[in-house]
Amino acid sequence: QVQLTESGGGLVEPGGSLRLSCSASGLTTFDRRCMGWFRQAPGSEREPVAFIDENDKTSYARSLEGRFAITRDDAKPILYLFMHNLLPEDTAVYYCAVDWECNYGPIVDGGVYPYEYWGQGTQVTVSS
Predict the structure, then answer these.
(1) Buried b (16+ CB within 10 A) or exposed e, 93-114
(2) Are the beta carbons of 52 and 34 closer than 8 angstroms?
(3) Does residue 61 carry a pLDDT above 90?
(4) Could you give phi then psi for residue 73, rounded to 5 degrees?
């Protein structure tokens, strides 16, 4: 059984940065699984943020590319999301997830991604 746990969220001022982490129990390595970060703001649908495939190729929501970066350490295993120049509209609960068989491919804006494993989420609030 894979359990994902996000951490690193919190309150940050506009223009600030955060690093989110996603650790996995039940795994000794991500074994090059496809993984993603998603977020859900109050009153909104969950939306894709960033994706990394089995070859470490990444894709991002169009509005976030250049400010966010997804990476991972397969040996630990931990998935990261580096977020820079944060805006109030980035306020949301952020989730990591695993697409175990890499069924869904790179994320696209508005896409739906019923990945097999999800974390509980970590709150990110961008406010002065």
Answers:
(1) bbbbbbbeeeebeebeeeeebe
(2) yes
(3) yes
(4) -115, 100
Residues 55 and 32 sit within 8 Å (Cβ to Cβ): yes
Tell me the one-letter amino acid at 120: Q
What is the distance between the alpha carbons of residues 99 and 37, in angstroms, rounded to a whole number?
A: 11
pLDDT digits (tens, 9 = 90+) for 22-55: 999 888 888 889 999 999 999 999 999 999 999 9
Where are the strands (E) in 13-127, listed by range? Answer: 18-25, 34-40, 47-52, 58-60, 68-73, 78-83, 92-99, 117-118, 122-126
C-alpha count within 13 angstroms, C-beta hemisphere, residue 89:
4
Structural tokens at position 94: 């952020």
Token digits of residue 18:
């955060």
Contact indicator for 6, 39 with CB cutoff of 8 Å: no
Q: List the structure tokens of 54.
A: 């089995």
Angle, CA 91 vertex, CA 88 and CA 97 arms, to 5°: 145
Q: What is the pLDDT, as a whole number, of residue 27? A: 85
Provide the pLDDT for residue 53.
Answer: 95
Residues 6+ apart with CB under 8 A from 18: 8, 9, 10, 12, 82, 83, 86, 124
